[in-house]
Design a protein that fits this description.
Subcellular location: Cell membrane
Domain ABC transporter: 4-229
Structural class: alpha/beta
Bound molecules: adenosine-5'-triphosphate
Order of helices and strands: EEEHEHEHHHEHEHEEHEHEEHEH
Strand content: 25-35%
GO molecular function: ATP binding
Protein name: ABC transporter ATP-binding protein
Membrane topology: Peripheral membrane protein
């Protein structure tokens, strides 16, 4: 049985649906990503999972519980890092960690957690005096301190420097490997690609696609991107007739082709036949970035 089950979720603000029939199921022990453009309905969805918002229609079950009706029970095993949070400005990092530990029956040791999040030097600093990234790290610690079975992380690494971001990814992988289920809202494709076992792409309040990162890349944007600047103009119809082609873009004399290995081979033959040299030739695997743009563009058109 999935540990989180969202079925036909709908949430309307002022007559406009922010979430419109979203369904997905999260298996225990996976990192499940929610990806989508600004205003797509991601935060609204996860806040319904956390019991912070009441759905207008549909059902949400977290470990069999209704997050709104059973909120007290839910908070015992669900940790949450909200997109925007505040603490009392005078509270020190240490006080916050001790206070939150006291809320849970079997909290984690806060010292190693603080160490992992680079907060040891800041234990005596007041919340108001922390930098944005340090506040973010504290909120991650507070989401994990109760030793939750499920953790919801909204914009996990926004505002973190590259090193802190990578350290946080490793920490979240370890959290997952210890059996915790992670529901992650993110804007960072690299983060989603590295961390998530599966991803729901949400666009305009609906699920546009749900798959593994590899699956999304394969079905949305082809596997491979080849780009080059030809020594002389190429016939557009020849390009559009390439096998297994997903898309062709021409910009400032540079050609970018999305397709498969077969497409790449056909491009090379085409260039050879026409005795055209390809300058600055690059062949790369498509990324989740490509898939995201492709999937969300398709929704808009
Ligand atoms: N309390 C509210 N009252 C009215 N409208 C709201 C409220 N909260 C969210 N919305 C609207 O609902 C839509 C979805 O918002 P939501 O915060 O869920 O999006 P999101 O995908 O998390 O966006 P972002 O990536 O920008 O954080 C937006 O159009 C937003 O303006």
């Amino acid at each position: 049985m999935p540990i989180i089950e969202v079925t036909g979720l709908r949430k309307v603000y002022g007559g406009r649906p922010a979430v419109d029939g979203v369904s997905f199921a999260v298996e225990e022990g996976e990192i499940f990503g929610i990806l989508g453009p600004n205003g797509a309905g991601k935060t609204t969805t996860v806040e319904c999972v956390e019991g912070l918002r009441v759905p207008d229609a549909g059902t949400v079950r977290v470990n069999g519980l209704d997050p709104v009706a059973d909120r007290d029970e839910l908070t015992r095993f669900l940790g949450a890092q909200l997109q925007e949070s505040q603490l009392q400005g005078k509270l020190t990092v240490r006080e916050a960690l001790e206070l939150y530990s006291a809320f849970y029956p079997s909290p984690l040791e806060w010292r190693p957690l603080a160490e992992r999040l680079g907060l040891t030097e800041k234990l005596r600093t007041r919340f108001a005096d922390l930098s944005g990234g340090q506040k973010q790290r504290l909120f991650i610690a507070l989401a994990l301190i109760g030793g939750p079975r499920i953790v919801v992380l909204d914009e996990l690494t926004t505002g973190l420097d590259p090193r802190a971001r990578r350290d946080t990814w490793t920490l979240i992988e370890e959290v997952r490997d210890s059996g915790v289920t992670v529901l992650l809202v993110t804007h960072f494709m690299e983060e989603a690609q590295r961390l998530c076992d599966r991803i729901a792409v949400i666009d305009s309040g609906r699920v546009a696609a749900l798959d593994t990162p590899g699956g999304l890349i394969r079905r949305a944007a082809g596997n491979t991107v080849i780009s080059f600047t030809p020594s002389q103009a190429l016939d557009r119809t020849d390009l559009e007739g390439l096998p297994e082609l997903d898309s062709v873009h021409l910009q400032s004399g540079r050609i970018t082709i999305n397709g498969t290995d077969t497409t790449v081979n056909a491009v090379i033959s085409l260039l050879a036949r026409n005795q055209i040299t390809a300058h600055q030739l690059r062949v790369v695997d498509a990324t989740l970035d490509d898939a995201f743009l492709d999937l969300t563009e398709k929704q808009e058109s």
